[in-house]
Queue: 2 jobs
Job 1
Amino acid sequence: MATSGVPPLPPDLEPWGEKDFAPIMAFLRNQIGITLESHRMGLMQARLRSRLQAKGFLSFTHFLDQVLKVDPNGWGTQLLIDLSTVNHTAFFREPAHFTFMAEKVAAWLKESGNAPIRLWSAGCSSGQEPYSMAMVLAETLPAPMLQKIEIWASDLSLEMLKVAAGAIYTTRDVQGISPARLRRFFLLGRGPREGSFRMVPEIRDLVKFRHLDLRNPTWAVPTDFPMIFCRNVSIYFAEDERLTLMNRLAQHLRPGGWLAMGNGEILPGVPPSLRKHSPSLFQKEG
Ligand SMILES: C[S@@+](CC[C@H](N)C(=O)[O-])C[C@H]1O[C@@H](n2cnc3c(N)ncnc32)[C@H](O)[C@@H]1O
């Protein structure tokens, strides 16, 4: 990166120090809406510093002035999003929601006639959640019925969406998956891919990935989902934003549709359009 023309830092500002980093945190909070918990700031600072140094930047301030302020919707903002979001996920995490979906899907198919059944994994991270949905449905439904299923999967992080679409997982990622499921739904890597596991095309083809910020005022997604998984995403949101998020997700459910949130999420209440079925499962009126 050319550094000529870069204004000098104020004399009391140590490059890569706390004071230099603070405006980046303010940008993340005010422009992107992510407030980092204090215990995650040190790691974020170290990861961002190493990425920026590799690109030739001299300080956080230079990155702020030259990239974030110049193009607030550009690569710098995406880098901040990718580094600051917690992407922890797992296959069949919080399994009761998958069992619940499997019990309901036959009825949804019956109700919908010839129309497809669409399900949504909102905040899908590296893909384990939507692929788990797909595996459970492949086990539940006869093959011709499976053709009527579409799984929408979205995330804010482009980096995570790339991993998800690639559908390649490590031994650690698949530990805990039963041998029968491993045999049926994963291809074993060979040669340079030895030790990796790729989802089979039957499962990959059921899932369509999209880049979507759940904070945006409009989402180009259908409004007739019988079930939406939005689990462990609202941890990034302030309390009032969590209620708004649930309310807006409810608008994308068909009447009687279901919203699954994470078991450990602290929810400030239930929007009027939803009824609480269990601590993490909500049903739309109607
Ligand atoms: C902890 S992971 C949860 C993944 C999966 N739902 C699960 O429960 O295993 C949270 C995901 O939410 C995504 N996320 C955070 N803020 C978001 C937003 N505003 N819009 C869309 N996705 C967001 C993150 O990028 C991350 O991949």
Job 2
Amino acid sequence: MSCLPIRDNRNSPPVTDPKDQKIALMGMTLEQLTSQMNELNEPTFRANQLFGWLYRSCVDTFSEMRNIPNNLKQKFEKKFIVHPLEVVHVTGSSSEPTQKFLFKLQTGEMVESVLMRDGDRTTICVSSQIGCAVDCDFCATASMGFQKNLSVGEIVDQFILVSKASLTRITNVVFMGMGEPFLNYDRVITAADLMNHQDGIKLGAQRITISTVGIVPKIKRYVEEKHRYKLAISLNGSSQVSRLKTMPIAKKYPLDKLLESIDYFSSRSRHPVTLEYVLMAGVTDAKEDAHKLLDMLNGRRCKLNVIPYNEIGGKYSHPSDERIETFINVLEKAHFPVTVRRSKGTDISAGCGQLAVMESAA
Ligand code: SF4
């Protein structure tokens, strides 16, 4: 579920030939760093040192790595770089509640993250792909089509570079930027593992949320693999028919199969799944939709986040206050927790209307 605006990479700088690139160390696991050190005939403990410099000290250069000898630093300079991303633009100041960061990849494409501060909580929304193949009708990113999966380093570096620029410590991560995280499954999980690693960034598993539109086989795999990160699923419809209005992915993974996978998650997880429901005027905001949601979800272990649509000038619009009130009143009979969030992110055009989604999930 994207929370970010479209970034049209057709105007990006020319793509660099991958063979001309140095290898980015950011995003490497301890095992991968160890294998790099083996190739250089260096002892294994150098990999542990590098891991600490990358993910605990968050250095930008090899010269800052004080316990690495100079001759080895020179070898590193020839072969590696620290960051695969470069910050090219920041919208908003560090005193504002919301900032948007634009990064350039080594290959020239652009990608974005959003940082939000709310009380004690500082949340970063990271992207997992450039563009997206899922084609949700309300999403600006969808019109880019799919361009590429981000590497582990390109995902983790969004966190590292934004945390270096933030005056407050990042407390939460949501995978709700550009792209469908479960269509870049392995890299997203490795990136989350690096953010959670006790010798590195040390972000608690329940402070990391992976949001999906409902890629059913990947939800099942996620459960089988026993990952502990929070799972959020975009429902955005009270029935198969209404879901199909805005989410063509529902054709491939129909609502009954999605509900089965949600139940499977609930049966194996200590934590409830978070379901996101965006209220779009005249599309998903009818009183009958609220009743259908109650029928569908009462008896299931879940949390529901209701998010009035954050307009971006497209064909969907924000419901009236009256329609929102009516919808919420029906949900008072819910046996599951319901939260309603109003968007605060439109001032920086943060997205396809879904900025509020990541706020409520974090
Ligand atoms: S098209 Fe759908 S899955 Fe893809 S980024 Fe947009 S909201 Fe997320």
